[in-house]
## 1
Amino acid sequence: MFKKILIANRGEIARRVMATCREMGIATVAVYSDADEHAAHVLYADEAVHIGGPEPSASYLNIDSIIAAVKQTGADAVHPGYGFLSENGDFAERCERENITFIGPPSHVIRSLGDKITARKIMEKGGVPIAPGMTRPCLDVEEMAKEAEKAGYPILIKASAGGGGKGIRVVRESSELKDAFASAVREAEAAFGDGSVYMEKYFETVRHVEIQILADRFGHVVHVLERECSVQRRHQKIIEESPSPAVTPSLRTRMGHAAIAAAKAAGYVNAGTVEFLLAPDLSFYFLEVNARLQVEHPVTEMITGIDLVRHQILIAAGQRLSLRQEDIEGRGHAIECRIYAEDPENDFFPSPGTITCIKEPSGPGIRNDCGVYSGVEVPVYYDPIISKLIVHGETREYAIERMVKALKDYVILGVRTPVPFMIDVLESEAFQSGEIYTHFIRTHFPDWKPDTRTHDLALIAWVMDELTGNQRAAAGPDSNRIPMPYETLGGWRMA
Amino acid sequence: MFKKILIANRGEIARRVMATCREMGIATVAVYSDADEHAAHVLYADEAVHIGGPEPSASYLNIDSIIAAVKQTGADAVHPGYGFLSENGDFAERCERENITFIGPPSHVIRSLGDKITARKIMEKGGVPIAPGMTRPCLDVEEMAKEAEKAGYPILIKASAGGGGKGIRVVRESSELKDAFASAVREAEAAFGDGSVYMEKYFETVRHVEIQILADRFGHVVHVLERECSVQRRHQKIIEESPSPAVTPSLRTRMGHAAIAAAKAAGYVNAGTVEFLLAPDLSFYFLEVNARLQVEHPVTEMITGIDLVRHQILIAAGQRLSLRQEDIEGRGHAIECRIYAEDPENDFFPSPGTITCIKEPSGPGIRNDCGVYSGVEVPVYYDPIISKLIVHGETREYAIERMVKALKDYVILGVRTPVPFMIDVLESEAFQSGEIYTHFIRTHFPDWKPDTRTHDLALIAWVMDELTGNQRAAAGPDSNRIPMPYETLGGWRMA
Amino acid sequence: MDYHLKIQEEPVTVSVMKGDDNTTRISIGDRIYTVTGSRVDRHHLHLTVDGKRGDVFVGPNGSGKHIVIEGQSHVVEDMDHPGLSARSRKKATGIPDTVTPPMPSVVAAVLIEKGGTVVKGQGVVVVSAMKMETTLVAPYAGTVTAVKIAVGDKVNPGDVLVDIEQKTETDESVG
Amino acid sequence: MDYHLKIQEEPVTVSVMKGDDNTTRISIGDRIYTVTGSRVDRHHLHLTVDGKRGDVFVGPNGSGKHIVIEGQSHVVEDMDHPGLSARSRKKATGIPDTVTPPMPSVVAAVLIEKGGTVVKGQGVVVVSAMKMETTLVAPYAGTVTAVKIAVGDKVNPGDVLVDIEQKTETDESVG
């Protein structure tokens, strides 16, 4: 087993990986940029290495710097978390060359799955259902027109080189194809230096359902059930759950088998996720493979009791996967809310700043994977995720109730968060019905505003804070002490 | 469903019950003594009523005062928690007469199970295995001598009126019987005004294994698996787990059936626990029924995903139990450590005082049911429990690792706790082997001392606290802010 | 005593009187509340309002206070003591009246030069915060008289990044 | 600079010197550590000791400090500034030299009266803390000259609950 693991990431996911390392008795190394000297993941590690300036390119994406940190500390392995270098074939290959264990799939698998058309080809060959459309790059609009007729409109044009939503066009009827094709090619050419595009059928009303997989080096692959990730804003998942309200036991088996087939077709090793589109008729189509630990992996952990990070480490250390498919069973219902530093009253713009106070919810069935603490600054340079709040309940209904209560118990001062928005989503009939498609937020919360039911209470709080001597309490050596009511009002009464 | 529930308890269990009430949209009423005006359970409730002086008899055991609080606030139901009035037949009966729902079994069931001989008789009649011995009160040593020969020595003499360990004697051979009998009768007479005693076989090496049950008003009873509670100090459980390392699937079924038979024989309604002694040959004997929620109920919740308090409330509201026996399945392994305010370096004497700082462990698979907060006083009048730390892991081994890590992450300043002792117990081969009997602590940790491996670090911490300006940081308005290393050493460097 | 407060941009007058038995009476509009409270820690107050208890959490937010209650988040400012935090916010029209970022951010691109002319709504600076890029636009047509920032600078709401001299005679937005 | 500290009743001298690059060098016995640190909050320090990082938590404990590190709990006192907290503790013999409770507690029963005589080891007061009763015994034979408490009183370690005038000539423990 590894003696020391370097976590090439930051924030909540770095802490979450370190938590399992500490349980396993493995020493941890944090890396940090100038902006993260006092970050939570740095405090939580056994050692920490400064790797560069605040911009990701100078630090968390800086391969040379991270490899140097591995060598300096003598770490055996690197866990990349999600984002940053987690799906970077060059980084995985560099680790392979330097004899550092990369806790993830081999570099050639990352590369082939990272290319959209290659991935589609692998899946088609492996018998995994893919959305009707093309599996080769296309530079000719006539060729695409023929394929589009076969698949049926609406269709989606995508750049083969792909990434970041660039070069994507929805085409609703044939008359629009020519212009959309030209503009997609132009954008792809500009963005990637490669104008080739391809086409898939576009589904208006669709769920995003993904299957977690675990695969060891010996060809043993299991799926660890599904996650429903349809609640998205700006193509970013915000609420995930498991099981999916749409997935029946037989569909679960079929999607699980498809995911295992996908993993086998790709030669996948370690933990990964096969994303599917699930249509209302319960047909499903391969979307992509996330060749890393997902942000939303805790919902799977909550319903299965399995620690995915531990299995990632065991697999990377060359061990056989101890889990058999028949041992993996979901129980109850889990929901995750992503708590970002963003202002729901200002178009969900990022809200970086200093967290003056955080009180995490706790109690039965509640888990909070948190990357900050009271007094820390949430820097402007990185993903705005502060924490992921996850609950487990006996049923979906109970889990929703538990999440609402946990959100109401969650206190974050200093930066804004979507907590008030999340509460309204979870309490909505639309969410509770389970009829969730990727346009859910657009459809049901197109112009959300916070309600005003606590306005009077907030004004009262402002006054009472003033009267109970905020300034004095903060300045005194005893500010932890609870003043008696008489004392707390004393200052005001004498004024 | 109830609109408002009064929780006739304090500390962590009051908060834990309130958490489920809040999830269910039920308003909560706390009661508090003079010593608890600022206690955590009071802050967590929607309403709070002062019920008397700090001594339990004046407040949490004061039936009139609690009934008055129910009427004053218009609560529909009372949840008694554990301890205090939870197994007091008079209180349950008073609630019945006043038309207040008591969330627990009927008063006559509490009374008959509270009497040791009556309970043994009920169980014998219901076909539940009881330890060999007598089922009638005895005042004649010759009669007992005959029964003792039948059961075989060693035997245990117990007072029928029973309670608090009074009137209990272990007799190892027949020659000791006469003196022991006489002294037990004297003690019982003095303590309860009733000198009658009875006798059971005594087991030297035995486990304490209990079965959780749930029973609705319609005669539907399920068992919710077992808990292993053999790790005890001064007859008080300190570490509990589920499943029991000793219980095989077939034994689980047999013990479960016995517990269901016990519940049916007693006419039990609501959540309860049937305690058994489990001998090394896997024979088991009824010990007693705890007619309430147990302290250690969270380990059952962690492995089954079931919220026992929710089911208590649903049952009390007259609903049918929604759980079927075949739906109840354990998964993984859960362990609970009871965190008391006690000093492991001073014979585990109580350590009341003010909690100057508490940082609760959190993360995957960790739950902490906590009844205190930074700045609160732990009063001298009540049970010293501060919180219960519970973890869940895929296997017993992983759960132990997780608990050790969680204990190491747990910070409590101002009162002493058994955390260092717990770490040593969990890390011991003896505990890890699963060979745990009720004399475990006596056998393996007869004279525990904390190790000294962190002494140097503690001395360094003392110095660095001094150098980084503890006083100034505490006094300044910015004490939440993180000073830079240069600043933190500044004061010292100028000195 | 009256306080003139602003909550979520809405001005409200709050009157505070001493009540009986160490209570405080607070009136907001035609609603009168009887309040007691104690401070649990620097940011945590426990209030009893008309018999119902609750925790409220209060922290600084510029010259105002950030207040969180049961998951709801509020900014309350004292209009009698307005401070630095009264920063320009995006107006309902969608176009602020100065070139200032909506959030603390880093300058990712400068799209104009000093001396250049811009039309209303033209992108002038791209700022980036937490992986999200936002293009700041010219609030009116005119000539760029100063570019006060460069790529990589950290900027905050209220900072004016670019000065534009307004082209007054032919205001395109008329009509 | 030298500190004379006491940890878990053990006296230790700790020498502190300035190191290179804002480090502090701390020597304890023959062990020398290179330390840097920062304060995360009032009770939380983050230290790097010889390259290994860790959180330590420090709070007041009478005149000393209560320090928690990785689940281990320590009381450290400054012997150059001894304070009120240096209270009498139970000695290894099992009998303290005054009638004082081992923990903060409430008097549950008083077993003697003023003017009465007691033998060494005789129970004189029962105190109760957190459902646990402890009987305090006479440290020596003698006559009770004062009973300073009554049932229900809150008492603390160090408080002398009963004065006993020692019977000197016939000390039973001799021999």
## 2
Amino acid sequence: MDNIFDRKGETAWCPGCGNFGIRNIVLNALAELNLKREEVVYLSGIGQAAKAPQYYNVSYFNGLHGRSLPPAAGIKAANPNLNVIIESGDGDMYGEGGNHFIHAIRRNPNITVIVHNNMVYGLTKGQASPTSRIGFKTPIQVNGVSETPINPLALAISLDASFVARGTVGEPEKTKEIIKKAINHKGFALVDIFQACVSFNKVNTHKWFKEHTYFLEDNYDPKDKNTAFKRALEEDRMPLGIFYINENKTVFEDNLAAHRAGKEPLYKRTRDMAKINELLEAKK
Amino acid sequence: MDNIFDRKGETAWCPGCGNFGIRNIVLNALAELNLKREEVVYLSGIGQAAKAPQYYNVSYFNGLHGRSLPPAAGIKAANPNLNVIIESGDGDMYGEGGNHFIHAIRRNPNITVIVHNNMVYGLTKGQASPTSRIGFKTPIQVNGVSETPINPLALAISLDASFVARGTVGEPEKTKEIIKKAINHKGFALVDIFQACVSFNKVNTHKWFKEHTYFLEDNYDPKDKNTAFKRALEEDRMPLGIFYINENKTVFEDNLAAHRAGKEPLYKRTRDMAKINELLEAKK
Amino acid sequence: MAKRGLKQKSRVKKETVPANELIIVLAGEAGQGIQSIESILVKAIKNDGFNVFATKEYMSRVRGGVNSTEIRISSARVRSHTDRIDLLIPLNDESIVHLTKRIGPATVIIGDSTQVHDNKLMNIPFQRIASEFGNPIYSNSVAIGTICGILAVSEEKLYADIRAKFISKGEEVASKNIDAAKSGYAIGRELYKNKIIKFGITKDPSIKDEILLNGSEAVALGALAGGCDSVFAYPMTPGTGVFTALAGYSDKMGLVVEQVEDEIGVMNMALGAWYAGGRALVSTSGGGFALMTEGLSLAGAIESPIVVHLAQRPGPATGLPTRTEQGDLNLALYAGHGFFPRIILSPGDVKEAFFLTQKAFNLADKYQVPVFIMTDQYFTDSYYNLPQIKTDGLAAEKYIIETNETYKRYALTKDGISPRGVPGFGTGTVCVDSDEHDEEGRITEDLDGVRLAMADKRMKKFNLVKKDVIKPVLTGPGKYKTLIVSWGSNYNTVIEAMKISGKKDIAFLHFPQVYPLPKETAAYLKKAKKLILIENNQTGQFGDLIKLETGIDIKNRVLKYNGMPFSVEEITKAIS
Amino acid sequence: MAKRGLKQKSRVKKETVPANELIIVLAGEAGQGIQSIESILVKAIKNDGFNVFATKEYMSRVRGGVNSTEIRISSARVRSHTDRIDLLIPLNDESIVHLTKRIGPATVIIGDSTQVHDNKLMNIPFQRIASEFGNPIYSNSVAIGTICGILAVSEEKLYADIRAKFISKGEEVASKNIDAAKSGYAIGRELYKNKIIKFGITKDPSIKDEILLNGSEAVALGALAGGCDSVFAYPMTPGTGVFTALAGYSDKMGLVVEQVEDEIGVMNMALGAWYAGGRALVSTSGGGFALMTEGLSLAGAIESPIVVHLAQRPGPATGLPTRTEQGDLNLALYAGHGFFPRIILSPGDVKEAFFLTQKAFNLADKYQVPVFIMTDQYFTDSYYNLPQIKTDGLAAEKYIIETNETYKRYALTKDGISPRGVPGFGTGTVCVDSDEHDEEGRITEDLDGVRLAMADKRMKKFNLVKKDVIKPVLTGPGKYKTLIVSWGSNYNTVIEAMKISGKKDIAFLHFPQVYPLPKETAAYLKKAKKLILIENNQTGQFGDLIKLETGIDIKNRVLKYNGMPFSVEEITKAIS
Ligand SMILES: Cc1ncc(C[n+]2csc(CCOP(=O)(O)OP(=O)(O)O)c2C)c(N)n1
Ligand SMILES: Cc1ncc(C[n+]2csc(CCOP(=O)(O)OP(=O)(O)O)c2C)c(N)n1
Ligand code: SF4
Ligand code: SF4
Ligand SMILES: [Mg+2]
Ligand SMILES: [Mg+2]
């Protein structure tokens, strides 16, 4: 069956890279959700992962390094009916884009954020990323990384993100289900996905990820923040799955005066000059 | 007794503002620690709180809005012997400066960060800050804040900050002891301090803070991250005290090649041209 | 090359008080209530048929220091700042020190001698009178009443205004304030009758029907008239006024109003909104705009419209946060890496600000380029009465097209403009990319083909933009010997100074659009024997632009960069 | 006004192969190992006494696409990029398509016919030969051997180099690679003997003692010689090379090397380091520098030294991340709000880069201003042999003073420079503030006094900086008719083109310092009958600066902006 989201053709990724796996998982998720192709908008920053939107057959906004989240919120503000998905790298999202990450979680627009977490800067050829492990050596971190890696899940949970999950390319089926739930979730949904960079990360390989992960129990209940935090902190073998869901949050675009009465996209509206005249009259 | 850190004279703060209280607490802490005045360097960003360094008799770097943390790390890198203290506002530190906040915690320079948390932007006349409560009305947030406030303690704990504490102007003695411990702590130490803005925050007043806070039990043990997180999440009445300490982290400046052999400040060193010649020779 | 920054030397010496005008300055600490005195007063004065202008200068603090408000009342239209003060009402001693240089022999100073000490002070015991009504806090109302009494402003409306202002605090507070004002009014009448304060201003009843508008409100309302439906900002003086004004209108107009975490987020969020079909404004000042530089370049690369309100204040860095300067022109001209077209507008008065901002949205959308509205603290905070603004014929022009399957966001067209679709409107995909891209918006490494085509396309658009430039505005005789050249907020001050100078051979060329520079510029400049450039910055940035574009170097640069706007007197002197 | 961006039209037509030179191009996918072939090859060639130059062009991807490396080998010194290719070694078909326009009738193409298909291809079964040694991966060593065979490079040293390169992977791998290279060597000798590839390059044994240095390394080493003790950066091509080089030296030199979370942090952290007595460098490219704009203004306000290595690439926005352009001059000139002095240096070759960067640290420290080193991708990635650089007489000048109790960071002095203390050195306090400040560094609202004094102080410093400008470098006859004007990385290409043109009345003015513009500039320009401006950008930004500063408008602008550097042929044509 043809996947309408698939834009066939070459990619700029290295053979064997985990990015291909994520692409397949996402393509399947999109198809199974039966999303309307014209209503899906993809965003990314800059990096190897951030090239992903180029390879889907959808509208996209491939912006600046680290800056995918603000335009995503801008898009939801202008047209809440669009299905907005971000796919970007760990450096892009948690490094250069860290401030937007914190505040987008607080803002809680209804978007899905998929992070290709390869624990390295791929495109710029192998410097440490915020998720690189302590001791990881690179041409810049010549004696190994000494800064504590970010735990994106714990961070998101601490900010009361409305949906926090982790997947891995190594588990395509389960990761696909997570992504589907993330897209269906109303609010900011984070899916951090482990992905091996075969060119620049010789430590955190496909094999390493397999050995260092496992799925949360089937009966795990993602409603409690403290439990979610505790599980997110596990380090030796890192859990996968949906860690935390908070359904009680209001959504950014719903709170805007522009959309309180209805969700008509801004481009469909026309400005009523009579109202401007009223405002001017009030200046008397 | 004269406090050598006290720079007498007018301030630009409003009468009744909590900033005065913080200033007194800090002055006492500095004096009691017997710090060498010439070795103390103060930093801040921009805001009402950020004017604090102006009113101490110390060296300071009063930089850009939101950007106190990077120069603080730069200072420690150039001279690890200096005692570096930041005092700034909640908007400055958690809003504009959010990305530096995350990554400074990871970097773990040996500095003390005191945040005047008045849950509002004072200097720019009363817009919401990242710690403003939901529903807080301002000339911008005309229908009240709808974004989830940042919980700076939970956030810092999620990043494994090496020292995380909260004080309040309403409890000067205890808050002073916290600040002293923070300054003595080796590593990044956060002290968030509740401070009423009498001009622009008519909700979170001195009284409100009093009613909504209490101190952690005397036997509270700040070594466990999960417990610390749980306590940091308490909302109705918010605990005060030292929530979390991790003594097992290495310190930024100690990891630098420049300071592995010794802590001599960079300005005292001279460049040995013979070494440059060696490097050039290796290019043959 | 450049003249030293104008410095006010000493107490104003010679002065001829035109009887048909009264210049009142109120001064005191932040927090003493000068702002609210001003707002009630100016409205009451205008509603009584006087021409009125008000501007303020203040320190970067919430309480303390010295701030002052200048209120000019006149038979003729007044729209600019003067050094001269006819009537000074200081609320403390520091106010007198602060304003020393502007106090002349003819300045009348009235105030409460328990608060203010000066040989020239005429004591009006504001506090004691207020206390008679139960609270010294009412002294501001006494002062309001006094001024209205001097001017013989209609009492009825004045008290209604005061009631409206205070009624939220209860009936008692409202009526006490009115009583206080009444006492003041009587005093004011006395002062006038005793010829302590002399003037002879004629009223014009039609002024009642005019509006009062400051620069911030003019930009905000102009934006709305231009179809602005969303505003993204991070608070920063003096850009905050426009943000606040739009937030105030958000419920009525159904706007998107979002305070973003930082200015980088502001710009990128606004670009997202435009991408999806919104018409977004960002409002900031120099330091905040500096952070938007990379985002501006993104707008250039993806050919997104964006409207930037850049309200200037003195730098470098934090500089003087609440002061005024025209120091960010170079920043607006050259911000962003790589080449892309842009438009820079610089309103000279509030009416022009309304219409230029309205137009900014249409220009941005039509050419898919960034458009700047450059104002400054002086401009955003000043206001005056003007005839009602007519919106007839104005429209938020629509340029968005419906896409189909073959849609290409960057289709190469003859004029360089590719029709702009938005996601969700039609069946096509709308792909924008910060990397160099092909017609479809996909990354390219085709250097000689696609890269050059896209670079040339952006240049073509620029050539188009250059053909659609708002002409400079000449005031004065067509045959001039001396030509004054200026931009932005100096407009009204120069106009008034020209009138005062009385010279017949001086004209003034004002630039509502500074970039691309109107092609008529050189011809105008060449006609003059003498050129005078007036800019509120340290080096003459607009003069440099003119030199670059026309080859004409205006050596005579009147520059001011102490954080204050030009006064009528300064410009009068400079052009005489 | 400006010429259209140079486009390479078609396969190079006429060519006269100078027998004393051989231009080799290797091309293939990213990941096929071209970089490592190049590094072994260039070293071996130079160590055998050849003059050599190497440059590369590559796509923004880690694998796939087409990248190429150009290696020029010559009797004379060679230091610039040519279109011409004498010997092409493509590793796949795409390489031939990619390089079509540079393939001339005389270009010899050798390659493995199982990989590459072209009529002109001379088949050398690299893969099969490699497989004979157990793994097709050794084919790169076969290629290395072939080229060295053609040149008759000393085998002993070559194999030692190969061993050194591969020994970390085990003795077997090392010796297999050597064996593969030996096979290639024999083939190369055959090719030469059979006159398939003709040239007659004379070697010079003294070249063995020369060094090989690329732009990045030159800047890094120059920085160290200037006393640089700390580097802060966020990876960004092509700025990363300098960062990586310094990281590589960090243990030996005891440096502070920190990868910061973003470029805003980079700039602010570096300013903190300078404040406390460090000498910090930041290295970035246009988009990253855009984010440092506000921080640059901070440097201006607090009068901090800072050295910025700005390695340019094409914009706008992400643009062409791995390509070259000189498009960020305006950004460097005007970044930051408010007025403050700055210095912009633009090395023309690697030796100059070393000395200018060395000097940059002393200039920054002396005048307490930002100093830029402007390079670009072409410059940072190109390298060649040159005589050893002498560091005699160089010093990292110390300007820091010990403070006492009366110390004032911004003491008003005659020349505008206030002696700079650092915290912890002496008993004084060192207070710096982004707000306008008084001599002590404390916030001020004294507009006519302190603000003007500080603004004027910054201007005084600028006037001093203007007196200490590095002179432009004239190449060619003192009496010229035509003057070529250029800056930065075009230097060597222009020099070579001038030689080729053979014209006696052409001279070339290169600017190691572009800002402040040397005062001699106008005189040089006026002497010429004809001016030619050469810039690797779309509009001629340096030309605009010259126009602004001298009034001279160079209309003849040779501009290129497809992401590639100028070739010798292009400039030769442009100046003929
Ligand atoms: C402002 C800015 N700084 C730096 C860069 C250079 N840059 C591009 S991608 C990247 C990091 C990529 O790492 P990550 O986000 O983890 O993606 P990956 O390539 O690993 O998928 C960097 C530093 C840039 N494009 N823009
Ligand atoms: C880049 C930039 N953006 C905005 C501002 C304006 N600004 C100054 S202080 C401030 C917020 C102050 O709030 P906070 O940090 O909470 O300090 P407070 O005044 O409440 O103590 C803002 C937005 C600025 N100076 N620089
Ligand atoms: S560099 Fe790493 S992350 Fe990027 S495509 Fe290659 S393997 Fe994947
Ligand atoms: S504005 Fe608020 S925080 Fe600032 S000094 Fe006044 S009361 Fe304090
Ligand atoms: Mg990555
Ligand atoms: Mg605050």
